[in-house]
Specification:
Layout lengths: L2 H5 L29 H35 L3 H20 L8 H6 L1 H4 L34 E4 L2 E4 L5 H8 L13 H9 L28 H26 L4 H7 L3 H31 L13 H17 L1 E3 L5 E3 L3 H8 L1 H26 L4 H4 L5 H27 L11 H4 L1 H4 L2
Antiparallel strand pairs: 1-2, 3-4
Helix pairs in contact: 2-3, 2-8, 2-9, 2-10, 3-7, 3-11, 7-8, 10-11, 10-15, 11-13, 12-13, 13-15
């Protein structure tokens, strides 16, 4: 197993091994003779199909582990389900480079990865969570405990937990984005429960008996099981649909490869730059650092945020270099944006590659801190000067990376692209209380 292959499987499956070796993976240096914008966009679509396909494969393994948990609720089956959830995040997070430029992905994404969520909508929460929120009447609705809900003046029949209930009635109920009823983070909350440790050590610690109908803790175990099974099946359905979108003949592929190549490349760069700057550096990292709030970390129940950020950054690198290593170890690659830029300005390409490498090195430091026992929510804690600096270093690298992407766009004579911004970067006084 190569060092890069080891990077792609976290937790008990081994992704914690070999992260520092990433910087040693050599970049290809030859300019390909078959490089054209159309060929680059085909590679882009091929990597998307592989990434979403891997996400579906890993999602099915997660589903199998959840069925094993339901069949035998015990610490070991719960631990295995959690490991499977972490492993499922690895390929999915690498696909986030396809957001912000592709409307089909952007319209679909809230179903699978919306965050942060008001977990009281789904299940029981601690007294510290509170029972109401003036901005969200469903803040503590607890659908698992209540077969009937009233949201936005509408009575919702929740007597049977169905896909339609979760996706059509509860997801963003009342127009509130924090009402997240589907996707990875709903599953994460059900497997871990709340993380009540603040910026101290420790993740969520839901007991396996919350899924044991014969020795039920937390109440409503049958409905909790029904919710977990239903939300997992919805995730599989959504991943299967997006995989087809990027296969031959799929609408998402056509929207990239069957358009003016300049438009396709603009979609590609918009995704890379917006994820680098506004989303990852801004909303997912700088905001939490500004307010020192663990509720603003991406995988907040599982304390898996270090890997979430790492694989987001790796996904950007994959697209730029036109190469993705699948979960089975095979590689999908082809003509890349790097090749296009190198043909026009080897210096610009070298700087872009160096920026990507610098980002991955900073992300590796965050992962190494987590491996050493200091989770991401601890790093952003108030008073943790050294931890804060580690996160800020990664933010700075992402910002620099976005600037290099702008230079690459100029080299290709594309129209300037306005990447997604973030108040936490552009107007921090608006992002803090």
């Amino acid at each position: 197993m190569t060092a890069l292959r080891k990077l792609l499987v976290p937790g008990a499956l081994g992704a914690a091994l070999g992260l520092a070796a990433l910087a040693a993976v050599p970049f290809p240096i030859a300019v390909r003779a078959d490089v054209t914008p159309q060929a680059v966009l085909k590679t882009y679509a091929d990597i998307a199909a592989a990434g979403y396909g891997d996400s579906l494969i890993a999602g099915r393994k997660l589903s199998e582990s959840i069925e094993a948990l339901v069949a035998k609720p015990a610490p070991e089956t719960l631990s295995a389900a959690r490991d499977a959830w972490r492993a499922a995040r690895v390929p999915y997070m690498q696909t986030e480079a396809y957001r912000f430029g592709n409307k089909i992905v952007d319209d679909w994404e809230p179903r699978v990865n919306a965050w942060p969520l008001d977990e009281g909508l789904i299940d029981y929460v601690s007294g510290e969570y509170g029972s109401d929120n003036p901005e969200n009447e469903a803040y503590a609705a607890n659908v698992i405990a209540n077969p009937s809900l009233k949201i936005a003046g509408k009575t919702i029949d929740a007597s049977t937990i169905t896909p339609a209930l979760l996706s059509d009635e509860l997801q963003e109920a009342g127009g509130v984005e924090a009402n997240v009823a589907t996707g990875y983070h709903a599953i994460e909350f059900l497997l871990w429960g709340q993380d009540l440790n603040g910026t101290g050590p420790g993740a969520g610690d839901r007991p396996a008996t919350d899924f044991d109908t014969k020795n039920c803790t937390g109440g409503n175990c049958e409905r909790r099981i029904a919710y977990l099974r239903t939300v997992t099946q919805l995730l599989l359905d959504d991943l299967a649909a997006m995989t087809k979108q990027w296969e031959d003949g799929g609408a998402a592929r056509k929207a990239v490869v069957d358009v003016n190549p300049d438009n396709g490349l603009s979609m590609l760069f918009n995704g890379l730059g917006s994820l680098s700057y506004g989303e990852l550096a801004g909303e997912r990292m700088k905001l939490g650092l500004l307010v020192h709030d663990p509720e603003e970390e991406h995988d907040c129940f599982s304390d898996n945020t270090h890997y979430a950020h790492y694989y987001d950054a790796l996904g950007i690198r994959n697209v730029y270099l036109g190469s993705y290593t699948r979960i089975d170890g095979s590689v999908v690659s082809g003509p890349s944006v790097s090749d296009l830029i190198k043909a026009k300005s080897a210096e610009t390409d070298a700087k872009m590659r160096a920026a990507l490498d610098a980002t991955m090195q900073k992300m590796t430091v965050i992962v190494d801190r987590a491996k050493g026992g200091e989770a991401y929510d601890q790093l952003i804690g108030q008073g943790n000067t050294a931890g804060n600096a580690v996160v800020q270093d990664a933010i700075n690298a992402l910002i620099a990376q976005a600037k290099d992407l702008e230079r690459a766009i100029a080299v290709l004579d594309l129209k300037p692209i306005r990447f997604q911004g973030s108040d936490s970067l552009d107007a921090p006084e608006k992002a803090t209380p």
